[in-house]
Design goal:
The protein is of the alpha+beta class. It is 54% helix and 8% strand. It has two domains: 78 residues, Glutaredoxin (3-Layer(aba) Sandwich); 111 residues, Up-down Bundle (Glutathione S-transferase Yfyf (Class Pi), Chain A, domain 2). It binds glutathione.
Length: 210
C-alpha cells in the first residue's frame, strides 16, 4: 500500500493515460477500481471528492486530483523524468495540440455517459451508437495521422503526452472495430509504445480486476 491512490477503471482510457505516466516515471501507486458498469463513480462518497463523478482521480500529497491531463501535469511538475512535454514553447504547443485532438475532441463525445444518453434518452440502437463512436475517432485520427511524425514516436525516441493519449485511444478504436488501415503512422507509434513495459503494465487487460 502506498500513499498515492489512483481511482480508476480498467477500461477507462483517461485512467489508462495516468497509469502509463505513473509507470513511465516510476511512481509507485495503489489502484482502487471504481466500476463504471456498477455506477461506482456516482457514489456519494466518491462524488464528494470528485464532483464530476468520473475516473480517474489521483489522491496524492493530500490532494484529490481530477482530469487526466491535469493529473499528468501535476506528475510532470513533481517527477520531471521523463518529461511529458518539451520545455521548448513551440514543441510544447505541438505536443499539447496532438494530445488534445484525442483528449478534448475525440474522447469527450464518446464517453460512457454520452453513449448512455444516445441509447436511453435519444432511443438510438447499438449499431447507430457504434457508428457514432467510430465516426468521431476516425475524424480525429485523419488529422492526427497528418500531424504524426514520419519516424519514431510523437516524442521522438521517448514517449510524450501525445503518445500517452494515443495508445488508449487506439485501444478504444480496436475495441469498436474501427478500420485502422488509413492510419499507418498511428499504428506504428502504438506498436512501438507497446514494446515498453510502462505501457504494457498499464494496459486494460494487465490491470483488469480478477
Ligand atoms: N476529461 C476527463 C474525462 C474523464 C472521463 O470521462 N472518464 C470516463 C472514463 S474514460 C468516466 O469516468 N466515465 C463515466 C461516465 O461517463 O459515467 C479526463 O481526462 O479525466
Amino acid at each position: 500500500m502506498t500513499d498515492i491512490i489512483l481511482y480508476d477503471y480498467w477500461r477507462s482510457s483517461a485512467s489508462y493515460r495516468v497509469r502509463i505516466v505513473l509507470n513511465l516515471k516510476g511512481v509507485a501507486y495503489t489502484a482502487t477500481s471504481t466500476s463504471l458498469l456498477d455506477g461506482e463513480q456516482k457514489a456519494p462518497a466518491y462524488v464528494a471528492r470528485n464532483p464530476q463523478g468520473l475516473v480517474p482521480m489521483l489522491s496524492i500529497d493530500g490532494h484529490d486530483l481530477t482530469q487526466s491531463l491535469a493529473i499528468i501535469d501535476y506528475l510532470d511538475a513533481k517527477y520531471d523524468d521523463p518529461p511529458m512535454v518539451s520545455s521548448d514553447p513551440a514543441e510544447r504547443a505541438t505536443t499539447l495540440a496532438q494530445a488534445l485532438v484525442i483528449a478534448a475532441d475525440i474522447h469527450p463525445v464518446n464517453n460512457l455517459r454520452i453513449l448512455k444518453y444516445l441509447k436511453k434518452e435519444l432511443g438510438q440502437d447499438q449499431e447507430v451508437i457504434d457508428n457514432w463512436y467510430r465516426h468521431w475517432i476516425a475524424e480525429g485520427f485523419v488529422a492526427l495521422e497528418t500531424m504524426a511524425p514520419e519516424t519514431g514516436l510523437f516524442g521522438g525516441d521517448k514517449p510524450n503526452l501525445a503518445d500517452v493519449c494515443l495508445v488508449p485511444q487506439m485501444y478504444n478504436a480496436r475495441r469498436f472495430d474501427l478500420d485502422l488501415q488509413d492510419f499507418p503512422k498511428l499504428e506504428r507509434i502504438e506498436s512501438a509504445c507497446n514494446q515498453l513495459e510502462a505501457f504494457r503494465k498499464a494496459a486494460p487487460e494487465a490491470v483488469k480486476p480478477a
